[in-house]
């Protein structure tokens, strides 16, 4: 092996060249270390992000439970908070015997004893059992006849058909109401509804006829639904939400605005400001709007309240997946404050309790700030990406008044569940049907569903109400709610 030259044998020029060569190597190695360190940091962040995404479920994020497949889900409700079965005060629906049955069938005793052959005499005891069943249902056809007669003076007298009888052959209000009831409230597809009517009642109905019935109901109900929108806009407290909705193969957005007694649904190609402007409803709202904190809602001039169900799920993620203890303390505070407001039965909390909750809230935020320092600006265009815990902490800090609105105003709910529930059943319809084939069909669904959901909140008989709609006497809900 050839021996390396001794440094003492090198000339000054050779030593300088060797030093420069070594310096270049060290510089290159340093640059490579910096590059690799940055790459490792980036990859670690990407891995943490992907692990976080994989760890998200319906319990710690806004992912719906239906998207979790067959995995077992875990509720956020504490065990024992509401035991299985009927709750106290629930009236129940157990089948009970009636005093006046429609039919009575006697099953007589034999005339003689089958053991000794003696005649059976004396007063027998009676045991009653009742069977509740449906009578045979067949199509009932009513024929309307008008008459004409010319007077001796020459005038022709002619009677008139009722206003609702407009064709030589047509379906009546009962059939129309059932078709609309099944498709718009129970979410059956149109073709399946036609099959149900044919199988149960012998109604030979086509899918086109069912669609026409839906369109007629929507047209009749449009003025009432417009009044529902006006009433929601005038409410002291309302909730709003939106969700993606495919119509004619394209992504649209289903919007909702609700109160305790009113539900309004609307369809729009846009999710945010453009939809709000076209609908006009939320821009007219002067009370408090409960929502999930999406940026477009922030542009509205009303008072805001944030949905704490969303916060509880996000805090669960930060506690369980990021290991940050402050998130668990915030969960406990929000849940405890909620229970306190429920126990107050609509009465406001005292100023001392409100201040105590706020003080505790801000102390937890201070812990969150210490655990999640803000990343400095990277020098690139746009806002520097922050961690999930920091983003949640910043929202809870910047909008603390809106988060705790339910403690200062007893009319404001803890969460936006009312609006989310209004979206849920239309999403079921969407999932069953795949998508609405036409915009007209989707708009008709929004109109009819707004009416039925409102009547359901106000305990109307939905089917009988639809019959009245087709008779031209639309039942009106209470618009003052």
From TrEMBL:
<dbReference type="InterPro" id="IPR052344">
    <property type="entry name" value="Transposase-related"/>
</dbReference>
<feature type="region of interest" description="Disordered">
    <location>
        <begin position="51"/>
        <end position="97"/>
    </location>
</feature>
<dbReference type="InterPro" id="IPR045618">
    <property type="entry name" value="DUF6444"/>
</dbReference>
<dbReference type="InterPro" id="IPR004291">
    <property type="entry name" value="Transposase_IS66_central"/>
</dbReference>
<dbReference type="Pfam" id="PF13005">
    <property type="entry name" value="zf-IS66"/>
</dbReference>
<feature type="domain" description="Transposase IS66 zinc-finger binding">
    <location>
        <begin position="110"/>
        <end position="153"/>
    </location>
</feature>
<protein>
    <submittedName>
        <fullName>IS66 family transposase</fullName>
    </submittedName>
</protein>
<dbReference type="Pfam" id="PF20042">
    <property type="entry name" value="DUF6444"/>
</dbReference>
<feature type="domain" description="Transposase IS66 central">
    <location>
        <begin position="169"/>
        <end position="442"/>
    </location>
</feature>
<dbReference type="Pfam" id="PF03050">
    <property type="entry name" value="DDE_Tnp_IS66"/>
</dbReference>
<feature type="domain" description="DUF6444">
    <location>
        <begin position="3"/>
        <end position="94"/>
    </location>
</feature>
<feature type="compositionally biased region" description="Polar residues">
    <location>
        <begin position="55"/>
        <end position="65"/>
    </location>
</feature>
<dbReference type="InterPro" id="IPR024474">
    <property type="entry name" value="Znf_dom_IS66"/>
</dbReference>
């Amino acid at each position: 092996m050839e021996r390396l030259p001794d440094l003492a044998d090198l000339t000054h020029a050779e030593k300088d060249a060797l030093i420069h060569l070594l310096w270049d190597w060290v510089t290159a190695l340093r640059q490579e270390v910096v590059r690799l360190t940055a790459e490792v940091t980036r990859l670690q962040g990407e891995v943490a992000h992907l692990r976080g995404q994989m760890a998200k479920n319906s319990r710690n994020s806004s992912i719906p439970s239906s998207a979790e497949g067959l995995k077992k889900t875990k509720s956020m409700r504490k065990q024992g908070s509401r035991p299985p079965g009927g709750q106290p005060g629930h009236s129940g629906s157990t089948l009970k015997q009636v005093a006046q049955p429609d039919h009575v069938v006697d099953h007589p005793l034999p005339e003689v004893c089958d053991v000794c052959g003696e005649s059976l005499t004396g007063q027998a005891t009676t045991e009653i059992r009742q069977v509740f069943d449906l009578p045979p249902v067949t199509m009932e056809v009513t024929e309307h006849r008008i008459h004409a007669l010319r007077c001796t003076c020459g005038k022709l007298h002619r009677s008139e058909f009722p206003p609702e009888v407009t064709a030589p052959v047509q379906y009546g209000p009962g059939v129309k109401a059932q078709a609309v009831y099944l498709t718009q409230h129970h979410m059956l597809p149109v073709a399946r509804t036609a099959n149900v009517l044919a199988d149960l009642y012998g109604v030979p109905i086509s899918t086109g006829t069912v669609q026409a019935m839906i369109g007629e109901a929507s047209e009749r109900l449009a003025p009432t639904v417009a009044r529902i929108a006006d009433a929601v806009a005038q409410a002291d407290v309302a909730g709003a939400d939106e969700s993606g909705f495919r119509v004619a193969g394209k992504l649209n957005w289903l919007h909702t605005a609700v109160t305790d007694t009113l539900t309004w649904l609307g369809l729009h190609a846009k999710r945010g400001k453009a939809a709000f402007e076209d609908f006009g409803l939320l821009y007219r709202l002067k009370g408090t709007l409960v929502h999930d904190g999406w940026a477009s809602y922030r542009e509205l001039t009303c008072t805001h309240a944030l949905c704490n169900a969303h916060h509880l799920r996000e805090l669960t993620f930060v506690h369980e997946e990021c290991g940050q203890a402050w998130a668990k303390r915030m969960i406990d505070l929000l849940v405890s404050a909620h229970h306190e407001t429920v126990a107050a039965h609509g009465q406001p909390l005292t100023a001392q309790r409100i201040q105590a909750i706020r003080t505790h809230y801000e102390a937890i935020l201070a812990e969150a700030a210490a655990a999640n320092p803000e990343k400095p600006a990277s020098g690139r265009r746009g806002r520097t990406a922050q961690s999930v815990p920091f983003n949640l902490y910043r929202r809870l800090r910047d909008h603390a008044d809106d988060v705790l609105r339910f403690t200062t105003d007893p009319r404001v709910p803890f969460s936006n569940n009312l609006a989310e529930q209004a979206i849920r059943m239309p999403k079921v319809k969407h999932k069953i049907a795949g998508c609405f084939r036409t915009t007209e069909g989707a708009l008709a669904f929004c109109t009819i569903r707004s009416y039925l959901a409102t009547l359901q909140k106000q305990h109307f008989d939905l089917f009988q109400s639809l019959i009245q709609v087709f008779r031209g006497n639309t039942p009106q809900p209470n618009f003052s709610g």
